[in-house]
TrEMBL record:
Protein name (database record): LLM class flavin-dependent oxidoreductase
Keywords from the named record: Monooxygenase, Oxidoreductase
Residue ranges annotated for the Luciferase-like domain, each copy included: 1-316
Pfam families reported in the protein's UniProt record: Bac_luciferase (PF00296)
Source organism, top-level taxon: Bacteria
Lineage of producing organism: Bacteria, Bacillati, Actinomycetota, Actinomycetes, Micromonosporales
Database matches in CDD domains: Flavin_utilizing_monoxygenases
Length: 366
């Protein structure tokens, strides 16, 4: 298993000014690099306290790249539906060069109706826009004199500059919340996965992973090499009572921000999002005690969190875990203490591959 940090903001200006949030998040990224974590990740969302402080993860990760040396930088995720592929491919190629090949690119479809409305993009076009955007970016990175005649964009012949540092392109991951068909498509294409354990039953996640791995194998890819990211709210303390009290408070804060963000699904239907009309009830029915019992949050002492991760590995295999170490206006010192305790007492129980000083290609890194 590999472990990184997820800096998904769930904060309002009244709770923490944006400049303070970014100052602290960049300090946490530098600390993660120092402590030997695998990656730092952030999201693309708009308008709401659920991710709204991060409308462009590339901007943040470029700043993180300048403050770090080894750690991987992960977009978790960028949204092709809201960007022209030439613009998106170009700025990601810049980040790959700025970081000397430390970029992993997670793509997502988006799922919040107000974001689609603001960008004047129909939700029923979501899957087609996603597929077209990812493939257009891939070709712009891997090929020259690209001619693209898609449903939503037409261009070419063009040759993207700069060329990606990693050849033929950085590793690609696909975000999926509840949709098995996304897992199947990612496996068929040989891409990695980013999944959300908090809103799925373990049995559902196992089924989705099995479909993903079978699809990889059927397409000629090694079923055991796809990078699979799970994100978990995380709070560690040496005292169990403190860990549970604070972990509960911060997890419930993040959960409420998600409840508010998905509320529009009670009035929205889309053929591209089958079953999402149930997401409101599914999210509302979750609570901290249930999540803790089902190992959907990593809260407790280092020994307890180690045991939770061992059970997670038994369920899903050697996945990559993103630790959500910020929530709302959590003080920097508490996030940093969680990371230090994890690095000191949990990481040694799960031996990590030695990071390369200078990643020059996906093949060399893996």
């Amino acid at each position: 298993m590999q472990f990184g940090i997820n800096l998904f903001p769930t904060v309002t200006p009244a709770e923490k000014p944006a400049a303070q949030h970014f100052d602290e998040a960049l300090r946490l990224a530098a600390l993660a690099d120092e402590l030997g974590f695998h990656h730092v990740k952030t999201v693309e969302h708009y308008f709401t306290p659920y991710g709204g402080y991060s409308p462009d993860p590339v901007t943040f990760l470029a700043a993180a790249a300048a403050r770090t040396r080894r750690i991987r930088l992960v977009t978790g995720a960028v949204i092709p539906a809201f960007s022209h592929p030439i613009k998106l491919a170009g700025k990601l190629a810049m980040l790959d060069n700025i970081s000397h090949g430390r970029l992993d690119i997670g793509f997502g479809r988006a799922f919040l109706p107000p974001e689609f409305e603001a960008f004047q993009v129909a939700m029923d076009e979501s899957r087609d826009r996603f597929d077209e955007g990812v493939e257009a970016c891939r070709r712009l990175w891997a090929e020259q004199e690209v001619v693209w005649q898609g449903r939503f964009h037409q261009f070419g012949p063009v040759t993207m500059l700069p060329r990606p540092y990693q050849q033929p392109h950085p590793p690609i991951l696909v975000a999926t919340a509840t949709t098995p068909v996304s897992c199947e498509a990612a496996g068929r294409a040989g891409y990695g996965l980013m999944m959300v354990p908090s809103i799925n039953k373990p049995e559902k996640l196992q089924e989705m992973l099995e479909l993903y791995r079978k699809s990889r194998q059927a397409a000629g890819h090694d079923p055991n090499t796809g990078d699979i990211h799970f994100s978990y709210n995380c709070y560690l303390a040496t005292d169990a009572t403190t860990a549970y009290r604070n972990g509960r408070r911060y997890s419930e804060h993040t959960h409420q921000k998600l409840v508010d963000a998905v509320a529009e699904w009670s009035r929205t239907r889309s053929a591209d999002y089958p079953g999402y009309e149930n997401i409101v009830q599914r999210v509302r029915s979750s609570d901290f005690d249930k999540s803790l019992a089902e190992d959907k949050v990593l809260v407790g002492t280092p020994e307890e969190v180690t045991a939770r991760l061992s059970r997670i590995r038994d369920l899903y295999g050697d996945i990559t875990v993103s630790l959500q170490v910020i929530s709302g206006n959590m003080p920097y010192e508490e996030s940093a203490e969680t990371m230090r305790l994890f690095a000191d007492a949990v990481l040694p129980r799960f031996p990590q591959p030695a990071p390369a000083d200078d990643a020059t290609s996906t093949a060399e890194r893996r």
